[in-house]
Amino acid sequence: MRIPAVSTKYWHQLEDGRIQCDLCPRYCTLQEGQQGLCFVRARQQDQIVLTTYGRSSGFCVDPIEKKPLNHFLPGTPVLSFGTAGCNLACKFCQNWDMSKSRDMDRLADEASPETIAQAAADLGCRSVAYTYNDPVIFHEYAIDVAQACRERGIRSVAVTAGYVCDEPRAEFYRHMDAANVDLKGFTERFYHQLTGAHLQPVLDTLIYLKHHTNVWFEITTLLIPGENDSEQELEALTQWVVERLGPDVPIHFSAFHPDYRMLDRQPTPPTALTMARRIAIKNGIRYAYTGNVHDPEGGSTFCHHCGRKLIGRDWYELSEWKLTADGACRFCGTPCAGVFEAAPGRWGARRRPVLLKGAH
Question: Is residue 1 scored above 50 in pLDDT?
Answer without folding.
Answer: no
